[in-house]
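As a next step, the fold was encoded as tokens, giving this record:
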Amino acid sequence: MQTSENKKLSRLDLFSMATGQIIGVGIMTMTGIAIGFTGRSVNIAYLIAGIITIISAIPQIYIGGTANFLGGQYSQIAVLLGKKVAGIYLYIQLFTTLAISMYTLSFADYFLSLFPGVNAKLVCTIVLTVLVLLHLGGVKQAARLQNVLIVVLTVAIAAYIVLGVGSIQPDYFSNGFMTGGAGGFVLASIYLTFAAGGATYVVNYSAEAKNPTKDIPFVIIASTAAVVIVYAIMSTVAAGVLPVEQVANQPLSVSAEAFMPKTVYTFFVVGGAMFALLTTLNFNIGMIVYPMERACKDGWLPAKFAERNNKFGSAHYILLFLYLIGIVPIWIGLDLNTVANSTVILFTVIRGVMCIAATQLPKKLPELWNKSAFHTSNGKLRILCIIGVLLAALSVVILLVSTSMAQIVGNITILIIAVVASLLINKRVDLKVSYTEK
């Protein structure tokens, strides 16, 4: 069942969803670590990180601007790289559903810091139930919630910036700038791409977008640029209100406490973090639906899962599955943090895979590629994709150095499971046409 046009996602809806995905609680911790790398030049490092992120996203923009892939990245990989690679991607994606439980528990932790004594499992159940019910009512309802959450999140960020700018020390550029030299600055810039990334996942909402081939490429660039500029300003405050040694490798709360009134500080640290988690959680619930739905129709997963509700047009069986994946571990007390975090390296690798997929546009979709607003010469396409692969490889190296051994083993284990599952099941998979011109 197709969503009616008036219930599809507008450019503003997509922008709000992508922005909510980018802004996470990582900004609270990653900024301080980057200050430890490069000191007060962290603001410039954020801007460089944004440029790197957008350059890395260009191959994805080429793909998304050529056709409307109904299953998001899953369909893109299936069409451009074949079903075995698509199967591997899908099964890796399924492991990310465990993050729903992790995000919900993190939200409950912040909530309990405001209201101690409340039952954490009850908080988790209420939050996850409300979000899933909204998605059951149609993706437009979830997008409306995202718009509201972004407004509150914006207020929290604005409070930090407005109250903090006046407290920046006058010796900002003369004391504590580029403390780690050129090497530290480069490391900070690449490290902060993990805070700036995430907008490309909005392609998984292609099936619900009003004008996906135009709006999604725009949203990827615009949301990344907007968030990075805000992050650069926030990091200027974070690095400037106190001596560098006091804020290096510290969360944003350390700098916020120096200039915020107590009530505003509580709202920023707890409220801001809570709403950042909610926007990410809301985005992720919806993002996973569309690749899973196409995979069901192709034969990777039970076909029954792909059924949609006649009234709302929502994939109720998939949403029920996501709800159970999120809530059951919470109620039985199972800690899935290590497993949920053990796809970070793999999805960084997938960024490089998407660059390779983009090189196949002239061969696999020649007519649509030639008509694409983003069409370029084969040579330029190849060069930009090679740059994207190299940037992804560099990010993987940083992750391998900074990630725990348990998570590295987790990534390897998940990859092995995904490869074996893909090889075993692909013979009974029949890829359906999963893209349209617009």
About this structure: The beta strands are 68-69, 435-436.
